[in-house]
From TrEMBL:
<dbReference type="Pfam" id="PF01458">
    <property type="entry name" value="SUFBD_core"/>
</dbReference>
<dbReference type="InterPro" id="IPR055346">
    <property type="entry name" value="Fe-S_cluster_assembly_SufBD"/>
</dbReference>
<dbReference type="InterPro" id="IPR037284">
    <property type="entry name" value="SUF_FeS_clus_asmbl_SufBD_sf"/>
</dbReference>
<protein>
    <submittedName>
        <fullName>Fe-S cluster assembly protein SufD</fullName>
    </submittedName>
</protein>
<feature type="domain" description="SUF system FeS cluster assembly SufBD N-terminal">
    <location>
        <begin position="4"/>
        <end position="167"/>
    </location>
</feature>
<dbReference type="InterPro" id="IPR045595">
    <property type="entry name" value="SufBD_N"/>
</dbReference>
<comment type="similarity">
    <text>Belongs to the iron-sulfur cluster assembly SufBD family.</text>
</comment>
<dbReference type="InterPro" id="IPR000825">
    <property type="entry name" value="SUF_FeS_clus_asmbl_SufBD_core"/>
</dbReference>
<dbReference type="Pfam" id="PF19295">
    <property type="entry name" value="SufBD_N"/>
</dbReference>
<dbReference type="InterPro" id="IPR011542">
    <property type="entry name" value="SUF_FeS_clus_asmbl_SufD"/>
</dbReference>
<feature type="domain" description="SUF system FeS cluster assembly SufBD core">
    <location>
        <begin position="175"/>
        <end position="404"/>
    </location>
</feature>
Length: 435
């Protein structure tokens, strides 16, 4: 049975297993929308270069086994050496407090499953939940119909969370291919600050499909940073859709670092709802073999005097396939907009490919917008310069590639995360560097 048929057949049993009464009708409506849309094909413009047939033709278990035997040593290997961080650990969809470390105070933090069943949070969820996530795509509708795992975090006015929060989604001890629909909701009120790191890990040889939706609300003078560390194994699929709505004078950053996973699709939408907003999107992709990574970004400039910055770097080897489609929409009211978008790529083999398409739609006349993309190979003059100083060809190539990717992580102010990304870059590029 293909995934589409499983989704339709399992929904009744799934609803019976939950008690989110104020979401039942929304779930049914989302499933109907999904039925009408169906999974995207290469005939759909948004998936022209990304074929999800490999994902959708497999069978999956919708009810993962909760039992696990994750050890502290295994968890320690996933950490960034962050002694002063907080961390939240989900194993097979369930939040495990005994594996987590949460010291944050004066905030509302709950698993999404608990929050959806807590009557006192109904008003919050009526106000925020599923209000900015797209209603027009198959995967977001599918997530709403089946979401159960994930977290809800609300940071009150003027509260500054000093420690970054690392959220781990782990799948282990699953005998069948497993399907997770994770849902995250982050609300950062006026003057508040928070930094989140998100990572997914499959410990089994069976396939894991994660369909994740995150909604971020950043209020005036607030700052929200969300870092996605995607370094899963080759039996993992990830469809990630993140939506961020910003109010005036706010700053929101989403950094996406992709090194692993068989097929990864990142959908990222920023919505400006005020003036003097800053939005930052950075990405580094290094993949090989037959991996596919697709970044689709969109920034909606709806008010004047706002800035957005997109910088995505890609390095592709083997038969890897990269896709980048970045969109910037500037409304006629959004005068004095400053929007920058750049996608640079290096192909290391004849089998590697990249499809890149930066787009601008500008309806205002007093703006500063730029976009560009490059696809090429390493600079031969720079290689010669390094080799003339006694550096081997392989080492010289790795050093140039490291420098090429490095500027996309310059705005990371979490030192352990920056070191981890640097080490992953070095490992992928097979270069010995000191940190």
């Amino acid at each position: 049975m293909a995934l589409y048929d499983q989704i339709i057949d399992n929904h009744g049993e799934f609803l019976e297993s939950l008690h989110h009464r104020f979401l039942d009708e929304e779930r049914k409506s989302a499933l109907q929308n999904f039925e009408n849309l169906g999974f995207p094909t290469k005939k759909d413009e948004e998936y022209k270069y990304t074929n999800v047939k490999e994902i959708t033709e497999k069978n999956y278990n919708f009810f993962p086994k909760e039992s696990h035997n994750i050890t502290r040593e295994q968890l320690d290997q996933l950490h960034l050496g962050e002694e002063n961080f907080d961390w939240i650990v989900f194993v097979n969809g369930k939040l495990h407090k005994e594996l987590s470390k949460v010291s944050i105070e004066n905030v509302e933090f709950l698993s999404i499953n608990y929050a959806l069943n807590d009557e006192k949070h109904k008003e919050v969820f009526d106000t925020y939940f599923n209000t900015i996530a797209s209603k027009d795509t198959a995967f977001t509708n599918l997530n709403l119909a089946y979401c159960k795992y994930g977290f809800f975090l609300k940071v009150p006015k003027n509260v500054v969370i000093e420690k970054p929060i690392h959220v781990f989604y782990i799948s282990q001890n699953q005998e069948e291919n497993t399907f997770y629909n994770t849902r995250n909701l982050l609300i950062v009120e006026e003057g508040a600050k928070v930094e989140v790191i998100e990572s997914h890990h499959n410990f089994d040889s069976t396939y894991v499909l994660t369909n994740s939706v995150t909604e971020i609300f950043t209020y005036p003078n607030a700052k929200a940073d969300w870092h996605k560390l995607q370094n899963d194994n080759n039996t993992s699929y990830l469809i990630d859709s993140t939506f961020a709505r910003q109010e005036k004078d706010s700053l929101t950053t989403v950094n996406t670092f992709t090194f692993g996973g068989k097929l990864v699709r990142n959908n990222l939408d920023f919505i400006h709802n005020g003036s003097n907003i800053n939005s930052f999107m950075n990405g580094i992709t290094i993949i090989g073999k037959d991996q596919l990574v697709d970044h689709h970004t969109a920034v909606h400039h709806n008010f004047p005097n706002c800035e957005s910055y997109q910088n995505y770097k890609g390095i592709f080897d083997g038969n890897a396939h990269g896709v980048f489609n970045g969109k910037v929409f500037v409304d006629k009211l959004a005068q004095k907009t400053n929007a920058y978008q750049q996608n640079n790529n290096v192909l290391l083999s004849e089998g590697a490919t990249i499809d890149t398409k930066p787009q601008l739609e500008i309806f205002a006349d007093d703006v500063k917008c730029s976009h560009g993309c490059t696809v090429g190979q390493l600079n031969e003059d720079a290689l010669f310069y390094l080799r003339a100083r006694g550096i081997s060809k392989k080492e010289a190539q790795a050093l140039l590639l490291y420098a090429f990717a490095n500027d996309a992580m310059q705005n990371i102010d979490i030192e352990p995360l920056k070191e981890k990304i640097s080490k992953l870059l070095a490992e992928k590029l097979k270069v010995d560097l000191e940190f």
